[in-house]
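Thread amino acids onto this structure.
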């Protein structure tokens, strides 16, 4: 379990951690291939294969998270398509109580996301999740994603947090590994990022499926 007396700062991922990942899963694996098939006049199977190849080519890089990159690559109106499906953007049901308790306990709550700023603003408008936060950092402002060490150096320089007294929460094993390598003292893995998918245990980390179980 977490020892909250040893934690001052909580760095929180957004998609799959504070918000249900179902919107993103559906958007990138269903909506985009469908649109790609229409624009390129190819079969859905061909579109899916092409899209997955493109995703894998930039996985973990800032381009993978960049809406401008995908708009250019696929010739699709990405933000317009996101707005058409924004009704699927949902806060995890355990999150409001969790963040409220952390605020009351005097913890500093910072969103640290690889999501593009336009996507962040759309999700804030849909969920008001920003009302719980003390700060917001999109890795796009540094041009490097959470999977890479320079990002952590930039973020610490900006926030001035104590690594040993910081908790980082994410649903990505690669990102958690990068935070561990940087020396973040407390790490928490979200094992159920997508409400429509089975749980997945992230080995080597404390796993959580309901944040309320962590409250003192």
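Threaded sequence (216 positions):
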């Amino acid at each position: 379990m977490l020892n909250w007396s040893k934690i001052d700062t909580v760095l929180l991922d957004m998609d799959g951690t504070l918000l249900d990942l179902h919107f993103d899963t559906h958007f990138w694996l269903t909506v985009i291939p469908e649109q790609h098939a229409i624009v390129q006049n190819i079969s859905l199977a061909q579109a899916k294969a092409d899209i997955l190849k493109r995703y894998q080519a930039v996985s973990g890089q800032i381009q993978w998270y960049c809406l401008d990159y995908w708009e250019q690559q696929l010739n699709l109106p990405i933000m317009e398509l996101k707005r058409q499906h924004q009704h699927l953007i949902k806060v995890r049901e355990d999150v409001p109580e969790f963040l409220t308790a952390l605020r009351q306990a005097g913890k500093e709550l910072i969103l640290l996301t690889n999501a593009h700023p336009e996507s962040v603003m759309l999700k804030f408008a849909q969920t008001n999740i920003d009302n719980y936060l003390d700060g917001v950092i999109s890795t796009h402002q540094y041009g490097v994603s959470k999977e890479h060490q320079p990002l952590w150096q930039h973020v610490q320089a900006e926030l001035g947090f104590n690594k040993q007294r910081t908790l980082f929460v994410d649903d990505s094993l690669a990102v958690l590994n990068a935070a561990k390598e940087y020396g973040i003292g407390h790490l928490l893995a979200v094992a159920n990022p997508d409400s429509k998918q089975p749980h997945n245990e992230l080995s080597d980390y404390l796993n959580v499926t309901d944040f309320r179980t962590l409250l003192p």
